[in-house]
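re: that complex we talked abt at group meeting.

here r the seqs, copy pasted straight from the sheet so there may be weird spacing, ignore it
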Amino acid sequence: MKKVDWIVVIAGLAVGIAAVVLTLMGNPSNMGFCIACFLRDIAGATGMHSAAKVQYVRPEIIGLVLGAFLMSLATKEFRARSGSSPAVRFVLGGFVMVGALAFLGCPLRMVLRLAGGDLNALVGLMGFIIGILLGIVFLKKGFSLKRSYDVGKGEGAVLPAVMVVLLVLFLAVPALFKFSEEGPGSMHAPVLVALVIALVVGALAQRARLCMVGGIRDAVLFQDFRLLYGFVGIFVAALVGNLITNRFSLGFTLQPIAHSAHLWNLLGMVLVGWGSVLLGGCPLRQLILAGQGNGDSAVTVFGMIVGAALSHNFGLAGNADALNEAGEVVVGGISNAGKVAVVLGLVVMLVVSLINLPKEEKA
Amino acid sequence: MVDARGYSCPMPVVMVQKEVKKNAPATLEVLVDNQCSVENVTRYGMGQGYQVKVTQEGQDFRLTLSK
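got the structure back, here u go
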């Protein structure tokens, strides 16, 4: 039995508890944290899309990036690096977001949805694992987005700086932004609470190298279960928190901000899993890496924001299940355009995977 | 020698794993440039029965894996 790395377990438990607290204080159900949803809300708040129900400057994103930034400065781990196929990463980030919004959540929200009893997330998890396994096939064949290089400190500090500016403008000139009056975007914990919790979580996630995709990837690739403890920690803490606060509801139908179009939940998360393996980390990990100076991850985050904006501008994102006037369940899911986008995303993953194999190992 | 500087995880461990599986070297020098990779390569090396010595070289790290 290998030694348990307690920092990962503690970070996982902290994320799970923080997610339940944020939900209790106003965030949407099973959405204490959702990197995809919150980047999408920021895209809406800044006018990059006009979906009125999902517009808010989420302090959680700001806090996660700045928490990782401050922790990496404190531990002298901050190192500005960039140059590992940034344009490809931008595109991959965009399609990871298309997949996540088809499913209605990033891998972190997938775990939180599971902990809330949403069985659609189990379908998502199956897709996520399939996507990771597909990515691993190419990693084993030598896939690489090539190395990065040391760059000026300013390049490494771009995303933290953007987050500071966003926070200052949000607090000082909120009229600049669009805010939802109904829907998920209108539901949020108090700004200061969300910011402080996210700063702590960001710092912990930086220390623990927390990554949703990394847990399953490393377990399969190296029989290294370290990151999986974080994944399990989040699930256990959120599950217990949901049970205590009576927020656990087991089933497929009418789960909060979720749909039960199983095929598209599955394929959406295949796209997220595959893309995240190619990128070297899940959306949460991209935020943390960008906070500690990785310019390529900053580009990925910008790609995710643009992907979110396009998802809503072209109606690609999932619609939640709902009740109609007759009290019947209307299954949500994604539009035909959304289905085309998810399939296109999978094709892009395949092409990127193939063209970045070592030349001698190409078929 | 595996030079994994400039690569983020999991690439350094993938590169080391490839070398270990291909040549099963008694000793292996690995260069990485971030603490996360130091931790991951160390864990992988120890799991494969190597002793791992870490030396900091400027901003980079040299890991010496030996059996």
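couple things i noticed - The two ends of chain A are 39 Å apart (CA to CA). Residues 4 and 211 of chain A are 16 Å apart (CA to CA).
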